[in-house]
Amino acid sequence: MVRESKSPHSSPTFCVCKPNGKWRMVHAFNKLNAATIPASTPIPRKDVLQINMAGCIIFSALDMVDGYYQLLMRESDIPLTAVSTPRGMLWEWLVMPQGLSNAPPHSIGS
């Protein structure tokens, strides 16, 4: 999921305790997201989906609750996902982490 990085880019990462006592990893991709051009991928209309599915006999649904950690990052984008830990370690994501501004449209479209 991650590998050590020598990227010139770095976003802070840390853990916070959720109300239920479990821990959540947080990545502060604010600067990366500010420099990202928003995806213009519209959500398909229901009638268009129904027309496209006419005649199909096999249907599938993907559970994308954990989709972020299942989609491989494009090799050229991996250095942009570098995160630094409070202990000064630098890692980069090989799979899509949560917190990227274009992640939901990419997840839905892949």
UniProtKB/TrEMBL annotation:
Highest taxon, organism lineage: Eukaryota
Any single Pfam family the record assigns to this protein: RVT_1
Segments forming a coiled coil: none
Domain annotation Reverse transcriptase: ranges: 18-104
Signal sequence interval, chain numbering: none
InterPro entries attached to this UniProt entry: DNA/RNA_pol_sf, Rev_trsase/Diguanyl_cyclase, RNA-dir_DNA_polymerase, RT_dom
Protein name: Reverse transcriptase domain-containing protein
Provenance organism: Phytophthora fragariae
